[in-house]
């Protein structure tokens, strides 16, 4: 309790050295200060807010058991204090008999201050003091003032620890639980407004679970605060520890998860129309691309001979049906159902558009090959013309052959490619300097025209 212990005297009585007047006066002064400190501590415990709350609360569990013991300890503290105060008053009376105390006065004063002459009735033990280890509780027990101080210090520390722990939990948790409950109420109202309700959305079920948990948690905190107290390891100071907030923290995290889910649903409500418009646009582009691919496939089959053209699938009718369902969810304000449907539709629509583009690319590949061959043929003819060799008979003959193949329908790409290659080779020979160039060929006459055997296909295949 913040007071120094009395110095113990000889065991049993003051048959040892007797105090002189100065030593007795100093001992009385010290004991007066000690008495005042003890009384101040006991009154502070009596007026402690935590003790008053415990006294008026309907307690359960470990708090109920410990408070019953603490109440007995506090009552016993006052009994010990009264005995201590009576012994100290008797010592003052002895000292006040005369200014210069006699030998008998000093002996009596020494016996009161250091001996075991302070009697506490056995009724006090019935209110909380443990029975003697050597037998049943005695009708009364003798203490020295030092022993009484030590016993009061022990009971005071245990009682104060219990009171401070309960008060700390009550000061920390109920207010936080109430704030979280208020946030829960706001979140539940918002969730109901967007269709997040129990039985219809998992977050609605979570809200009901959190509501029940907070109600149960608050009731238990109020009735059994010590169940939520975590003592500090190795601490002997009263109230050493902290409130256990694990259950509160779990409820707070669960509510935060629900709040994020509700925010996501709210976001869907705010931009649902824009997302639906974007979805319609993506599916429309996919449909147009597939239609273009189907048209191109007919063109390829008509214009390109002996070419494997992949089939083109129909429009994404299943996605169109889901899009209609999403629009209906929006019309009925069923945001909790619209949110996951929009997310899956957006993924599937993008995949459908990509598939349509890949289908168009695959279908039009033969036309791209033909266009590349046409461009290559015209590029070499322009190169030959720049060198003044455009009228070379062999070049004219081979250019006309390649052009007929590329601009006729159906076009055999493999045959057309071979004709273009022959024209390229002839053009390189014509433009090359040296014996193989134009002078050499003018002396020997024109080279014989190349012949083409349709079944002579060694590579290339249908392109």
Report on the structure:
This protein is mostly helical and 463 residues long. Among the domains are: 21-162; 267-363; 366-444, no CATH class. Helices cover 69% and strands 3% of the residues. It has 14 helices and 4 strands. The chain has helices spanning 21-47, 49-56, 61-95, 103-114, 122-125, 145-193, 202-223, 246-303, 317-331, 335-363, 365-386, 393-406, 413-431, 438-444; strands at residues 118-121, 140-143, 229-231, 241-243. The strands form 2 sheets. Strands 1-2 form a two-stranded antiparallel ribbon. A two-stranded antiparallel sheet has the order 3-4. Helix 12 packs antiparallel against helix 13. The longest helix is centred in the middle third of the chain and has 58 residues, at 246-303. The two termini are 101 Å apart. Mean pLDDT is 80; it is low at 2-15, 125-135 and 439-463. Residues 255-296 form a coiled coil. Residues 432-450 have a biased composition (Low complexity).
Reading side by side through the largest sheet, how are the strands ordered?
Answer: 1-2
Count of helix runs:
14
Mean pLDDT: 80
Tell me the overall shape.
rod-shaped
- Helix/strand order: HHHHEHEHHEEHHHHHHH
Radius of gyration: 52 Å
Biggest sheet statistics: 2 strands, antiparallel
Low-confidence stretches: 2-15, 125-135, 439-463
Helix residue percentage? 55-70%
Distance separating the two termini: 101 Å
What structural class do the secondary elements suggest? mainly alpha
Give the number of DSSP strands: 4
Condensed summary:
This protein has 463 residues and is mainly alpha-helical. The chain has helices at 21-47, 49-56, 61-95, 103-114, 122-125, 145-193, 202-223, 246-303, 317-331, 335-363, 365-386, 393-406, 413-431, 438-444; strands at 118-121, 140-143, 229-231, 241-243. Residues 431-463 are annotated as: Disordered.
């Amino acid at each position: 309790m913040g007071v120094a212990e009395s110095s113990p005297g000889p065991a049993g009585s003051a048959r040892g050295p007797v105090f002189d007047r100065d030593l007795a006066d100093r001992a009385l002064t010290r004991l007066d200060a000690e008495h005042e400190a003890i009384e101040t501590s006991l009154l502070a415990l009596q007026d402690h807010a935590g003790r008053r709350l415990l006294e008026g609360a309907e307690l359960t569990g470990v708090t109920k058991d410990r408070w019953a013991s603490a109440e007995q300890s506090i009552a016993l503290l006052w009994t010990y204090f009264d005995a201590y105060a009576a012994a100290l008053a008797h010592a003052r009376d002895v000292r006040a008999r005369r200014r210069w105390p006699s030998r008998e006065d000093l002996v009596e004063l020494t016996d009161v201050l250091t001996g075991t002459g302070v009697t506490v009735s056995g009724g006090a033990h019935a209110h909380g003091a443990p029975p003697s280890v050597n037998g049943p509780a005695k009708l009364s027990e003798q203490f020295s003032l030092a022993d009484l101080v030590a016993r009061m210090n022990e009971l005071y520390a245990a009682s104060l620890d219990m009171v401070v722990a309960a008060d700390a939990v009550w000061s920390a948790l109920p207010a936080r639980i109430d704030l979280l409950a208020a946030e829960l109420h706001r979140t539940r109202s918002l969730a109901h407004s967007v269709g997040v309700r129990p039985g219809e959305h998992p977050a609605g079920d979570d809200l009901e679970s959190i509501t029940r948990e907070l109600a149960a948690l608050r009731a238990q905190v109020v009735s059994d605060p010590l169940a939520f107290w975590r003592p500090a390891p190795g601490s002997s100071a009263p109230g050493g520890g902290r409130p256990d907030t694990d259950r509160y923290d779990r409820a707070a995290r669960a509510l935060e998860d629900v709040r994020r889910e509700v925010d996501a649903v709210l976001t869907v409500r705010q931009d649902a129309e824009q997302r639906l418009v974007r979805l319609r646009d993506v599916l429309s582009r996919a449909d147009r691309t597939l239609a273009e691919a189907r048209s191109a496939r007919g063109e390829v089959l008509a214009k390109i001979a002996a070419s494997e053209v992949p089939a083109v699938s129909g429009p994404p009718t299943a996605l169109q049906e889901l899009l209609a369902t999403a629009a209906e969810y929006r019309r009925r304000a069923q945001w909790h159902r619209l949110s996951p449907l929009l997310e899956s539709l957006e993924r599937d629509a993008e995949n459908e558009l990509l598939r349509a583009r890949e289908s168009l690319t695959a279908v039009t590949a033969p036309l791209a090959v033909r266009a590349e061959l046409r461009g290559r043929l015209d590029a070499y003819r322009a190169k030959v013309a720049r060198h003044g060799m455009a009228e070379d008979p062999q070049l004219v003959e081979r250019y006309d052959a390649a052009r007929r193949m590329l601009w006729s329908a159906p076009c055999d790409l493999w045959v057309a490619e071979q004709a273009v290659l022959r024209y390229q080779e002839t053009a390189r020979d014509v433009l090359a300097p040296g014996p193989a160039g134009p002078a050499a060929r003018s002396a020997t006459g024109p080279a014989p025209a190349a012949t083409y055997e349709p079944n002579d296909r060694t590579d290339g295949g249908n392109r």
